[in-house]
Amino acid sequence: MRPKILILGKNGQVGWELQRSMALCGDVVALGREQANLLDTQSLLVWIQQNRPNLIVNAAAYTAVDKAEVEESIAHQINALAVGEIATAAQEVGALFIHYSTDYVFDGGATTPYLETDAPCPLNAYGRSKLAGELAIQAVDGDYLILRTTWVYATRGQNFMKTMLRLAKERDSLRIVGDQIGAPTWARFIAEATADMAVKALSKRDQSKFLSGIYNLSAAGETSWHGFASLIIDYAKKHDNLIKTTEVSPIDTCEYPLPAKRPLNSRLSGDKLNRDYGIILPAWDVAAELCLADILH
Ligand SMILES: NC(=O)c1ccc[n+]([C@@H]2O[C@H](COP(=O)([O-])OP(=O)(O)OC[C@H]3O[C@@H](n4cnc5c(N)ncnc54)[C@H](OP(=O)(O)O)[C@@H]3O)[C@@H](O)[C@H]2O)c1
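Above: inputs. Below: predicted complex with NAP.
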């Protein structure tokens, strides 16, 4: 029987791609903020009880990292309290719950890529709310996968790649943070990896071999925001003759102060994902060029 799949956050970067990648995995119902507002989960919880999906994938989240510093209770409601309620509803109907989290649960002080077992220590309100969401899911005795991802970009929505493409047409030079290291990760590959994991996880459940857990899910390799910006500008110059930027210089985080502190090391090890699900995401630069081709051609 085809699984019934509920996707939340259908208009976000990852949610948009999930609607496409999950379509072959089962019968999908995708809801956005208008149909399922996580500030008031009552009707969503009733919907889950009545429709009894086999799989719930939550890509809805409060993602405004700097605004969260002054709206921590709203971020906590959406990223933690609502998530715990959905996890409970999933457990009650026997659904597998897949949820996304972030490298911002860490303080970035490590010198190597983070493992799933490393102790979290968020630097900002958004990170605290996402960590609280992870803990809320784990407190429920249901089947879950928490997928920690990083530096997400997509053809749609607000993201670093789209901002760079806009600025490249407006400015001769750009100064971009060079001391934060991570792996920019394309929402499309997050969604495709999620679909692959979901099929395998549902099959493991049928064979009573499924284990809930946290998995890192980020592109292979590493770069800085400056490295990412440089690739975007170089690619854009070759494919768009309106690009003005001729110079991209690295600066330190302290030269670009923002309300929320960011970790300097956002690298996440993909070893567990490869070991348990046989998935390795493509290198960040390969994926970035594929996304740029989608945006610019
Ligand atoms: N973006 C990143 O760099 C990044 C990095 C690490 C982890 N993550 C995690 O990855 C997941 C997907 O992120 P994303 O980049 O796809 O985020 P996104 O593009 O910001 O999308 C988030 C979605 O959540 C929806 N949403 C916000 N408040 C809501 C509410 N009260 N009720 C229902 N829906 C609400 C938004 O709705 P509207 O469309 O109506 O605004 C939006 O569609 C999230 O869990 C995020 O925390 C993201």
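Residues 9, 11-15, 32-33, 36-39, 59-63, 78, 100, 102, 130, 149-152, 157, 187 surround NAP (CB under 6 Å).
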